[in-house]
């Protein structure tokens, strides 16, 4: 792989992001020094067990971290602009228009008191100068795109008149209607039926690809990500433990944690199970062991792991791993 | 909707009937009002005659039957004291009461909503704690005391407002109101503020609590992620949801205000139905008391009906049946 011609700069560059919470029990370092890129038109999977800081990375990019949380350090460069340096006014022009975010539970993401037409329209009112008629047409078009039957009639319906899957389609429509260049989807299908999950993931991939937009897919489900993502970032206790092209990470995981996640994916045909193959549980993020945070659960832990934290070290083709004893790349 | 209205109307009649019985029974146990009507030195004969004139010589059952029959013909009896129909007496004074009740409610809402929203959206800020402390004071202070302090400070010391009475009124659609002139407003301010304090304090707490709850919801975060500004998030998305539980207690609050209006009207010599009630109780003017109570019951039913409709208007998930 040669480095030239100069690739265009990534759409999003997260550099050494630290998102900390000041609590009575001490500082909770929900995200502690995360760095990764999202290229233009790229799908990046952000994976890890619950509590690993995935959502906080997403909220940080949206600048939606509320006290007692704060972005304690790092930069978030969106198309060259550091989002951490923007004020609320400037951020409102970014949110929704440039970067959209959707959340896990479609049952609660929509305001129960407004029609979905109104909630779609709100996005256009905020971010475009379209006339009422043009906006209405855009809304109908968008609902059609996400697969809502009879979109025109459905505009006047309230959220409670839709099923969970349909609501998440509406949420996706709202997120995409102003044409954002980056969509952050935080466990968008976790709350839904397995059969609907795949449909919605495909829908999102489609909506993003069609517009040349990028997608950060946050999930604890490595299987879902492996089919969609171009690149994968693995987060454990607020730190990135592995990062690389999806193929590399899935086929040649180098971090014992990633390997554990992969091993716990049931094979096709079997019922999905929780991540039970990794022994132990995620430690309390306030009382992380010194050294490697994964050491208490790692089958390969050595004394050095408990003393010094491994740095994230890049290998060929950007496959990076934070481990003193990275797994050998299996012969391909 | 049609069935609902029918149901409500039927309910209304039932409530009024129940109240009429209750009131009548209670009245019968409160002694013979004849003695309050006649001069102290009246003879047995004069007393008996007065009793006959008042219709009190019949049995209770007959009295009630007569009363019911007259009521159905729109005749609620005559005031013993004023010698005029009790219902017209009430209707005459009703606008004065409604005026301070509505103004008090308006004051309570206008002050409580922004403060409650602010406090609920920023529960950790000092301002929020101040709002909570203030509302606790407002709840604890007895209304009559607030009224007297206001009179002392603003009427006696500063001489900004008159201490009692209603001031000039104008007729609007046949109803006499006083808030249209500066002089009329000067008269109504103190009693309305006095009346609003308790409701204001409670409203503020409810709105704060509801806002805290609503602001945690996903759709609020989604709204922020959409790029909705602070004001839109708080009022368009937050407050409207916070109002739903409020609407359910709104009817009760309005009822409270009407009840507390008796006290406020007495302190400020405000010529409303509350003052009329208190005066009538002193004078044993039974027909007026009966009409007052039935009237208040009617208002409760009507307000609750309005609340149901309002509820359905705000929340699309609610269908009135
Ligand atoms: N308000 C808060 N106060 C303290 N800690 C918090 C708060 N919100 C989140 N955290 C911490 O942030 C960590 C990461 O959470 P999150 O990003 O939601 O994980 P994930 O999305 O990967 O499941 C959690 O372990 C939690 O301890
Ligand atoms: S650094 Fe040591 S403990 Fe941590 S993952 Fe690697 S081998 Fe395991
Ligand atoms: Mg999460």
Automatic annotation (TrEMBL), chain B:
GO terms for biological process: transmembrane transport. Residues 94-311 form the ABC transmembrane type-1 domain. One of its GO terms (cellular component) is plasma membrane. This is ABC transporter permease. The lineage of its organism: Bacteria, Pseudomonadati, Pseudomonadota, Alphaproteobacteria, Hyphomicrobiales. It is found in: Cell membrane. InterPro entries: BPD_transp_1_N, MetI-like, MetI-like_sf. Its main location: membrane. It comes from Salinarimonas soli. Keywords: Cell membrane, Membrane, Transmembrane, Transmembrane helix, Transport.
């Amino acid at each position: 792989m040669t480095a030239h011609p100069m690739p265009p700069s990534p759409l999003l560059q997260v550099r050494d992001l630290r998102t900390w919470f000041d609590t009575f029990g001490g500082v909770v370092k929900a995200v502690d020094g995360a760095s990764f890129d999202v290229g233009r038109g790229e799908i990046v999977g952000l994976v890890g067990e619950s509590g690993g800081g995935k959502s906080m990375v997403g909220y940080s990019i949206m600048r939606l971290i509320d006290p007692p949380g704060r972005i304690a350090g790092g930069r978030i460069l969106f198309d060259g602009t550091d989002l951490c340096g923007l004020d609320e006014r400037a951020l409102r022009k970014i949110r929704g228009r440039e970067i959209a975010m959707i959340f896990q539970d479609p049952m609660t993401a929509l305001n129960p008191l407004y029609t979905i037409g109104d909630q779609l329209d709100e996005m256009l009112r905020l971010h475009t100068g379209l006339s009422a008629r043009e906006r209405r047409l855009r809304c109908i078009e968008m609902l059609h795109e996400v697969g809502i039957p009879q979109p025109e009639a459905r505009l006047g319906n309230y959220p409670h008149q839709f099923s969970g899957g349909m609501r998440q389609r509406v949420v996706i429509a709202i997120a995409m209607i102003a044409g954002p260049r980056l969509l952050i989807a935080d466990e968008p299908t976790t709350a839904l039926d397995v059969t609907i999950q795949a449909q919605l993931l495909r829908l999102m991939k489609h909506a993003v690809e069609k517009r040349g937009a990028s997608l950060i897919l946050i999930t604890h489900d490595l299987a879902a990500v492996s089919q969609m993502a171009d690149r994968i970032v693995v987060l454990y206790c607020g730190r990135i433990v592995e990062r690389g092209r999806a193929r590399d990470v899935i086929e040649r995981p180098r971090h014992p944690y990633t390997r554990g996640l992969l091993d716990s994916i049931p094979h096709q045909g079997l019922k999905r199970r929780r991540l039970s193959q990794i022994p132990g549980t995620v430690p309390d993020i306030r009382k992380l062991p010194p050294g490697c945070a994964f050491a208490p659960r790692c089958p390969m832990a050595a004394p050095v792991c408990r003393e010094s934290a491994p740095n994230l070290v890049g290998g060929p083709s950007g496959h990076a791993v934070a481990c003193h004893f990275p797994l050998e790349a299996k012969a391909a | 909707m049609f069935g609902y209205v029918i149901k409500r109307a039927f309910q209304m009649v039932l409530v009024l009937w129940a109240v009429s019985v209750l009131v009548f029974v209670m009245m019968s146990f409160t002694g013979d009002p004849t003695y309050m009507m006649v001069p102290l030195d009246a003879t047995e004969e004069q007393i008996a005659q007065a009793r006959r004139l008042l219709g009190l010589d019949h049995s209770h059952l007959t009295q009630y039957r007569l009363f019911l029959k007259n009521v159905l013909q729109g005749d609620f009896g005559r005031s013993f004291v004023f010698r005029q129909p009790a219902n017209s007496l009430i209707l005459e004074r009703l606008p004065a009461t409604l005026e301070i009740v509505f103004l008090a409610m308006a004051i309570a809402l206008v002050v409580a909503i922004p403060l409650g929203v602010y406090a609920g959206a920023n529960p950790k800020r000092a301002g929020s704690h101040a709002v909570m402390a203030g509302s606790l004071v407002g709840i604890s202070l007895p209304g009559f005391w607030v009224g007297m302090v206001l009179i002392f400070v603003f009427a006696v010391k500063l001489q900004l407002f008159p201490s009692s009475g209603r001031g000039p009124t104008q007729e609007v659609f046949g109803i006499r109101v006083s808030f249209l002139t500066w002089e009329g407003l000067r008269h109504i301010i103190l009693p309305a503020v006095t009346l609003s304090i308790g409701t204001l304090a409670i409203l503020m707490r409810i709105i704060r609590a509801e806002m805290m709850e609503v602001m945690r919801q996903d759709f609020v975060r989604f709204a922020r992620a959409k790029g909705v500004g602070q004001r839109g998030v708080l009022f368009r998305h937050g407050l409207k949801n916070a109002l739903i539980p409020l609407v359910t207690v709104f009817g009760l609050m309005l009822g409270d205000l009407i009840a507390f209006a008796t006290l406020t009207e007495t302190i400020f010599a405000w010529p409303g139905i509350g003052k009329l009630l208190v005066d009538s109780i002193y004078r044993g003017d039974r027909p007026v008391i009966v009409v007052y109570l039935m009237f208040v019951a009617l208002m409760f039913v009507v307000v609750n009906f309005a609340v149901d409709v309002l509820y359905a208007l705000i929340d699309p998930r609610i269908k009135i049946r």
